[in-house]
Description:
Elements: H1 5-42, H2 44-49, H3 51-74, E1 78-84, E2 94-99, H4 105-113, E3 124-129, H5 138-144, E4 147-149, H6 156-171, E5 178-181, H7 188-201, H8 216-225, H9 228-231, H10 238-243, E6 249-258, H11 267-272, E7 278-288, H12 296-320, E8 334-337, H13 341-369
Parallel strand pairs: 1-7, 2-5, 2-6, 3-4, 3-5
Antiparallel strand pairs: 1-8, 6-7
Amino acid sequence: MAVTVEKAQKLGYTCLKALLRFAFMVANNLVAIPSYVLYLIVLQPLRILDSKSFWYIEGVLFKWLLAMVASWGWWAGYTVVEWGDDVKAVSEDEAMVLVNHQATGDVCTLMMCLQDKGTVVRQMMWLMDHIFKYTNFGIVSLIHGDFFIRQGRAHRDQQLVLLKDHLEKYYRSRDRKWIVLFPEGGFLRKRRETSQAFAKKNNLPFLKHVTLPRLGATQVILKTLVAPQENGTPPAGDGVRRESKSKGLQWVIDTTIAYPKGEPIDIQTWILGYRQPAVTHVHYRIFPVKDVPLEPEALTNWLYQRFIEKENLLTHFYETGAFPPPQGQTKAISREMTLSNLWLVAIQSFAFLSGGMWYCLFQYLYRCLF
């Protein structure tokens, strides 16, 4: 097939845009991440004198870093429309967020759509695959206190013990509110066949758009973070009890991400912007934690039911282009999530100015010392 001049021009424009966006992303990382680390090194005395203020400042810087990632997609035309319950109503409470996992772009989508949810991004903790520890953002997540979990049966029991210890040590001491995890334990394309085989063997529903979730991390989070009046278990420790007047985990937010035509956006697309502008749809359903069972069998059934509901939601979305209305209602209401371009430019400007400041400072110190 002959390539027309118009197609060649369009391809050239797309390649040039992708190259410029990649260069901007690299520059963005080179100034923003070292600046985040250096600011927190300088603020170490404050961490000793006033830990709460230190982690407040760290949380603000962390939110700005995530906003920079969100801006890469936002300026490429990758936007979000939200459905279901309004999670802003519980943004100041402790909550566990359960998300279906299709691609690396899921994390970027959450970074975007949670930006306008009050203090959520500043006070959230992520559970992510340990491989992310070795990415450019790994040092940021390590400092922030996110948990990197190793997948696989050989590591499972040890990882759950480490997760419990991590939550007891960092969750309340750093004033975390939301904890985000992907219970499927991997991308849809990688786990679907295994999940369907397991479902067939155990007489469970056949799922195409999600996979059956794993129990371990969800159960550890509930047992560790739910307040004693909710589950009758001891709190996470005397030190934690003194540090926090928390009411404990109060909500479970079941979050379902749907991409147009079922084609997920990956991190490469998010960065390079070579795909046409697209709207990602995110559906929320909020459950009081008192309605969530803690016994392993009952919790497993409860989790399976959530992902069966996700399957039905996604099937309806891919057939109609919209999520179904809540039970008892005739129409589903969507909300377009927006970000302020002025705010994003201000954050990016702060990052580049900070990078320039640290560069000049180190140049000055080098001249003084050598």
